[in-house]
Amino acid sequence: MSLMGLSSAEIEERRAKYGSNSLTQLERDSLLKKIFQGFKDPMIMILLVALIIQGVLYFMGQAEWFEPVGIMVAILIANGVASVSEYNQEGKAVTLRNDEAAKDITKVLRDGELWEIPVSDVVAGDIVFLQAGDRLPTDGLLVEGSVHIDQSVLNGETEEILKCSLEDAENDTYDIEDLLNPHYAYRGTVVCSGEAYLETNVVGDKTLFGQLALEAQSTSRRTPLQVKLDKLAHHISAFGYIGAIAIVLGILIKTFVTGETPDNLWGWVRLIIDAVTVAVTVIVCAVPEGLPMLTSMLLSVQSLKMEKDNVLVKKINGIETSGSLSILFSDKTGTITEGKLSVVDIALGDLVHLKHIGNLELKNNEGTEASGEYINKFIKAAGLNNSAHPGADSVIGGNSTDRSIIKALMDAGLTDAINRDEALGFKYFNSRDKYSAVAVNEDDKCICYLKGAPEVMLEKCHQYLGADGTIHPLNSVNEIQKYIDNQAARSMRLLAVAYGAGHVSEHGEAENDGSLTLIGIISIRDNLRSEAMGAIREVQNAGVQVVMI
Fold it and tell me: Which residues form the Cation-transporting P-type ATPase N-terminal domain (predicted)?
């Protein structure tokens, strides 16, 4: 099937007709609205009642002017500081979110050429190229190829679902509302293995992921501190009312017991006013007017301090929520680590290490030199057998591991030797087999080059390729396994590359026929952030369990 994608003229026409692929973010509240919403807080409402009572008492000559003024200042500071701080932080969060969205890219066919564009620029009708590791940018129908997809972001199920084109399924039917249908894929899901082309059906908020995102934005919950302050406000109100009633009754009982009852109506009115005044004074004194002000100021100051540590607090009450944490779930790549994978070592079957490959210096000064024969086979096993592609000045497509290998070959100046036209067939990586493969023709023989998990590769390897291009028996499997364990303990990501006789199946997949020759063990590392260890240790010392997901 020949795919050309949209033409330049069709792109703007479809964007105008079907809309953008950007997800709508709920419009943030204005500063004035935030301030008014702040007055609904139970503690602030109690202070407002206290302010009114003190104002009445002042005009009755029963209170000094600074008493209502003090409560009013406390209300303005508590509500104003919190509202202004949260408004500013939300503005910074919007800017950051827009910057991150601009970095989110996908691959589409347009005018017959493959382009990398921002996800927000995808329009209905675009042909999206999908590879292992890609996150789908839209909902659509597969028109060529097949992939296994992780849909856990939508339904929580980790089992991979096979998606294939209708052409491959001989015009089978499908239901776009059924997540398990074999031909329709959804935005936000992740390709686990395979390659395919997807024709975009809907974009933006019309996607299933977009609808769920809108629903998720509309929900909000009160924080642990807010819940506790609400209870405190209710307790203050209850005890205040009980105390006021008790004081009024006490004064009246004292009046009757002592026999100092008023002689006329005005005397009774004056007595009741005095009793109520004392009761209200007790209620006002029971209100901790400084608590909301102190809480707001502390949270605002902490949000500014955290911003200096590159932590943007969108909602300032999120700070006190984090104080109630008992378990912290953290991603590893890009959070605990730098998020930049790089090839740091290549070990041979005799555990001799390469000093460099091409122009790329490896982190082993005492390594050996690689011959042209060795480099040629390494390029086929690691470069041709790769879901990423070398671009003019960057790597295009592929998962992070494959991208790091292509980047290493680009730095080594060896990507010109990658000729995808010589590939007879591919086997794409999947989580079941744990390897990928490519079949090529060498001297009229079908040779299969494999790249995958070392434990899978070593089971089939009985010899290895030396740096000089000669073949040797593989007698050090146990030593290699110890080396692999040691590298893994150093947070290395390991891949083994090998080759052997093979064939291309009737489905066009490269398949190995048996015994393999080990080319080498590739060590790839994503270095820890310099501040990661200290941050984790500090959180653990605070009694929070850290779980990496």
Answer: 1-59
Going by the DSSP 8-state scheme, the letter that residue 236 receives in this structure is H
State which amino acid sits at residue 247: I
β-strand 423-427 against 395-396: which pairing, if any? unpaired
Cβ-count burial 339-353 (b if 16+ within 10 Å, e if not):
eebbbbbbbbbbebb
**For residue 21, how many other CB atoms are within 10 A of its CB?**
27
- 353 by DSSP, 3-state: which? strand
Neighbours of 304 (CB within 10 A): 13
Cβ contact 355:366 at 8 Å: yes
What is the per-residue pLDDT across 463-503, written as a single tens digit (0 to 9) for each? 999 999 999 999 888 899 999 999 998 888 899 999 999 99
Nearest alpha carbon to residue 120 among 21, 6, 16:
21
- Which CATH number, 3.40.190.10, 1.20.120.1730, 3.20.20.140, 2.70.150.10, labels domain 10-23+104-217? 2.70.150.10
CA-based nearest residue to 227, from 34, 36, 42: 42
Name, of 207-211, 232-236, 292-296, the range with top average pLDDT: 207-211
Provide the 8-state DSSP code for 195: E
Determine how β-strand 139-150 pairs with β-strand 161-164: antiparallel
Joined together, the tokens standing for residue 362 give 């490896």
CB-CB neighbours of 337 under 10 Å:
17
Do residues 347 and 454 lie in contact, with contact meaning Cβ atoms separated by under 8 Å?
no
Per-state percent for the chain, helix, strand, coil, to nearest 5: 45, 25, 30
Mean pLDDT within 226-232: 71
**For residues 304 and 317, what is the distance between their CA atoms, to the nearest angstrom?**
13
Q: How far is it, in rounded angstroms, from Cα 435 to Cα 543?
A: 41
Residue ranges of the chain assigned to CATH 1.20.1110.10: 31-99+221-303
DSSP bridge partners of 357: 360
What is the rounded CA–CA span in Å between residue 185 and residue 138? 8
CATH number of 31-99+221-303: 1.20.1110.10
Residue 385, token pair as written in the block: 């057998």
- Cα angle at 421 between 415 and 425, to 5 degrees? 110
The CA distance from 145 to 440, in Å, is: 21
In the chain, where does the domain assigned CATH 3.40.1110.10 lie? Answer: 337-528
What residues contact 135, with CB distance under 8 A and at least 6 apart?
188, 189, 190, 191
The number of beta carbons lying within 10 Å of the beta carbon of residue 397 is 24
Q: How far apart are CA 220 and CA 217, in angstroms?
A: 8
What's the pLDDT tens digit per position in 360-397?
777 666 778 889 999 999 999 999 999 888 877 788 77
Find the DSSP H helices in 259-316. Answer: 265-286, 290-308
Quote the CA–CA distance of 91 and 69 in Å, as a whole number.
Answer: 32
Angle (nearest 5°) at CA 484 between 482 and 490: 105
- HEC string for 474-526: CCCHHHHHHHHHHHHHCCEEEEEEEEEEEEECCCCCEEECCCEEEEEEEEEEE
Query: If you count them, how many residues does the chain have?
Result: 549
Which residue intervals of the chain bear CATH 2.70.150.10?
10-23+104-217
CATH class of the domain whose range is 337-528: alpha beta
